[in-house]
Model the fold of this input.
Amino acid sequence: MTHVVTDNCIQCKYTDCVEVCPVDCFHEGPNFLVIDPEECIDCTLCIAECPAEAIFPEADVPAGQEHFIAINAELAPNWPVIDAIIPALPDADQQNGIPDKLPLLER
Done:
């Protein structure tokens, strides 16, 4: 099983989760992070570190967000690995909790 970054990360991109990842499976896009399902070892460390509560085990992805499983797998090979904390996006706190942000995803 892998973990999946979902909708609430879009426009927030907090990076607390990447620092605790022992295998560097996070990849950074312009306004979103993804987890490489080929690298994730299902350690669960990232879940508790995500201020946006946007990371879930694949089997527990919230209803209606299952498409993020494929999005993470699609984008991870195209985006660079991120393994250190960087500042969140400028309006991350205002964006945190806003639903249905998929149209804002920058690929």
The first helix runs from residue 16 to 20. The two ends are 25 Å apart (CA to CA). The CA atoms of residues 47 and 53 lie 7 Å apart. The mean pLDDT is 97.
